Amino acid sequence: MAFLSDTLARVKPSPTIAVTNKARELAAAGRDIIGLGAGEPDFDTPQNIKDAAKRAIDAGRTKYTAVDGIPELKAAICNKFLRENGLTYTPAQVTVGTGGKQILYNALMATCNPGDEVIIPAPYWVSYPDMVLLAGGTPVPVVAGIETQFKLTPAQLEAAITPKTKWFIFNSPSNPTGAGYTRAELRALCDVLMRHPQVWIMSDDMYEHLVFDDFEFCTPAEVEPGLYDRTLTCNGVSKSYAMTGWRIGYAAGPLNLIKAMGTIQSQSTSNPSSVSQYAALEALTGPQDFLAENRTLFQRRRDLVVGMLNKAEGVTCPTPEGAFYVYPDISGCIGKSTPSGVTITNDEVFASALLDDTGVAVVFGAAFGLSPNFRVSYATSDVLLAEACARIQRFCASLV
């Protein structure tokens, strides 16, 4: 009898976490490392949010809470959805979890049966397919390449839907590409989904507030009210509010789904951290002016990185609409060799050789379902980004 579960054979550790850990280990060993793998802002949580957490501790709000969130936070989430997205939910339609990842995981665990298919546009966040597999479903990646700016077309979505399709996972702006769907582009996808009433929509809106230029964010249930009863609109405070370590995600959707997700959570983690919930309450109800300031900061970093990477030999880097990632194509580097004789056969070899030769840590594209590419997180300082991109330029120039 095997000791470990067969489930482990269906999943793999997160490549983004692996890259970040390796970069930390090398830096601890004395290497000059610039880590561009972690998807988290480099600045601190706003002071008013930290102060709210301290007040919660001092007030003794350190006990168990309701499994899927305190009433005050649920009310604030309802207000957020109405104010920013034009979506009306009751607190009973809201669930709060230990980060956005748990929200998605709970929904999949509560709904997927063997044989159920989940459509996932690729490139995708690394965790989507593995969470589907853990839940017993079948991930169906659909590649949206650089020729469509990494955006799924209505024809591709239509072709991927079968009688077994249960979910369509939608992420805009996207991790790893930063691609954002315009209202017209999302409208076209919604038109397809309206023709297939068995398909539910899981909208991962985590990067909602990180959009640039004149791009306007929108979400499926907002664009097509006819999808409201089969859409789970997911969000969190991790990225926009610089609260990655606080671990608070949330979602709103149909009551029966939210109840089922609560059942899953009641037998796994139970409630999210009480202190983190009060911090998230302040994030959603307190001053929001810093969001615009952060957008300006990230847009400047985006422009810096895109400009420098497009000057690297063999690299093409599209300009994303949001998030804090770019996803350059390295087709022009494949088949070449490093000065030490390493042949760049794929993007994983590229990323490994780049780290070994220059100390720049990036995540290879195969982890996100589309090669040959790599992901850069530009959620770090301008100085480090400029130095990292200069090293990437020199590395690419050295290939023969």
Automatic annotation (TrEMBL):
EC number assigned by the record: 2.6.1.-
Reactions the enzyme catalyzes: L-aspartate + 2-oxoglutarate = oxaloacetate + L-glutamate
CDD domains xrefs: AAT_like (cd00609)
Cofactor: pyridoxal 5'-phosphate
Keywords: Aminotransferase, Pyridoxal phosphate, Transferase
Enzyme's top EC category: transferase
PROSITE patterns: AA_TRANSFER_CLASS_1
Biological processes per GO annotation: amino acid metabolic process
Subunit structure: Homodimer.
Name the UniProt record assigns to this protein: Aminotransferase
